[in-house]
Amino acid sequence: MMMVLDGTLHTSSTNRSIQEFQVHRKHAMQHIEIHFKGRINRQWSEWFDGLTICHTVGDETVLTGPVADQAALYGIISRIRDLGLQLISVSSKEIEGDSLEHNQ
Prior knowledge:
With about 100 residues, the chain is mostly beta strands. The chain has one helix spanning about 70-80, and strands at about 1-5, 10, 15-20, 25, 30-35, 50-55, 60-65, 85-95, 100. It has a domain at about 25-95: Alpha-Beta Plaits.
């Protein structure tokens, strides 16, 4: 059995360090644009995590703005689904940023 303590990988049988490691990962902040059929009032912005709400000439609403990660994006898509609105398109562009994390 293996376990990680203080960023060091140990085996339970020998309880000695095998290797120390760091996890590098790209900060997953994204700028998104979501189009869906129907119109919602701009006052819903807070419920959609502060995204900007705009309307097209047709019967569409567009949500734009930054989200923390993929989980936040899927949460917003779930809210659109929960309102019974038809999703038209989703686009995202990663916002630059790196973070160095120590696995503990």
